[in-house]
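Progress note, project year one: complex with 2-oxoglutaric acid.
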Amino acid sequence: MSDALFGSPPVEVAPGAVHLPGWLDGDAQADLVRRCRDWARGPAGMRRHPMPRGGVMSVQMVGLGWHWQPYSYSRTLPDGTPVRPFPAVLADLAARAVGAAYGAPPGPGADPYDVALVNFYDADARMGMHQDRDELSREPVVSLSLGDTCVFRFGNTETRTRPYTDVELRSGDLFVFGGPSRMAYHGVPRTRPGTAPPSLGLAGRLNITVRASGLEG
Ligand SMILES: O=C(O)CCC(=O)C(=O)O
Ligand SMILES: [Fe+2]
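Model obtained:
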């Protein structure tokens, strides 16, 4: 039996960090790409955020449910435009993703998934090693990849440096990190331009991370 036909088995990259290759089928990928294009268009659409010490991020982003910009969440953009709502389709996807990764969906007491960041990487975009630490909740982060393959560097909770594992994330892959890996440093040192499935009509990489903010109001 080939992985191409049946998908690859889940891989535990670190305790609580699970890679599920090919989790989304082609139709689900195409549907999400279509939605991402709509979310990116705006209002409150996709943009490059300024960095506090100067320059702009190479990755373009749009927030849903909450606007994130280095390094905090808000309900409005700096110009006062309200953030777009968090779509039910992503709440459903996040619950199913947690179930697929850990064998059980989020329990009844879990903080609700209420924010997504949609990231777009052109051929030159990168994301430096960081922790997802602006959420108050410690529910797992659910990450979906669409379009070009990337190198996803998954490290440790103590430092931005080694030890880390480099994982190739392809279109349709799911990566979930929670539990002891929730605060692990991670980043995207490069993408592989031109590797997106042609049927998506996408030049670049889209990533959707769904999170529980733990924030009120
Ligand atoms: O693009 C990715 O796979 C990772 C994105 C990420 O780490 C983030 O949005 O915080
Ligand atoms: Fe992150």
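Residues 117, 119, 127, 132, 143, 152, 186, 188, 207, 209 surround 2-oxoglutaric acid (ligand 1) (CB under 6 Å).
The first strand starts at residue 11 and ends at 14.
No further modelling is planned for this target in the current period.
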